[in-house]
Amino acid sequence: MNELFSISGKVAIITGAGGVLGGNIAKHFITQGAKVVALDIRQEQLDVRVEELLALGGEAIGIVGNVLDIESLENVAKDVIARWGRIDILLNIAGGNMPGATLAPEQPVFDMKLSDWEKVTNLNLNGTVYPSLVFGKVMAEQKSGSIVNVSSMAAYGAITRVPGYSVAKTGISNFTQWLAMELALKYGDGVRVNAIAPGFFIGDQNRAVLINPDGSLTERSIKVLAKTPMNRFGDISELNGAVQFLCSQAASFVTGIVMPVDGGFSSFSGV
Question: What pTM value is reported for the model?
């Protein structure tokens, strides 16, 4: 293995590890020799994920925790420190959207369900901020560590129908830059904070708006691909390399960036 990009032996906490994206990255990290702490609020999904991780070899534990509960997160930190003595990596993957905070094509924004707006913005934004503060404090004391957040193409420009998600992800991009600055200035160059901004990937949450029941592309998909120079959707595994890079020594002078992994979507005007 190229040591420059190695994460072998690193202790990595992955929030939302019971989900598709978190699970995919957790499995990749295990194969790269990281010690994985799978964190999720759902016990059943967590049990399945840990079983999958252990089957790949290496070391992994599952801890039920709530990214919106500081006390819960502090308990996770204590458990991880007691077991492995340190926290090297935090991947803030927990997040998502809700139907009530997503507008139908002709629905006015004034009809949006505000309770769902609050849940979406809280889960995505505070669900990134709170773990960053709790586990980032451990990294600050160690004077080493890497935090990777998940932003979105929705933070680069207005994308129709997803107001709550867009606002939350924009907040994550800004918080990533702010925390990177704060930690580097006060705790040195060993603690870094970055984010990835995935382009369009077909998953459980967006499948219905991108793919018709007969398997053909929806009108929204056609628009997405028209603005994606690579002219395809991403495969979720194509996020793994970017995340590993940001957590490795290869990125030792990289902090405060939001890295697009988007097939060129963010760079293309559509003309």
Answer: 0.96
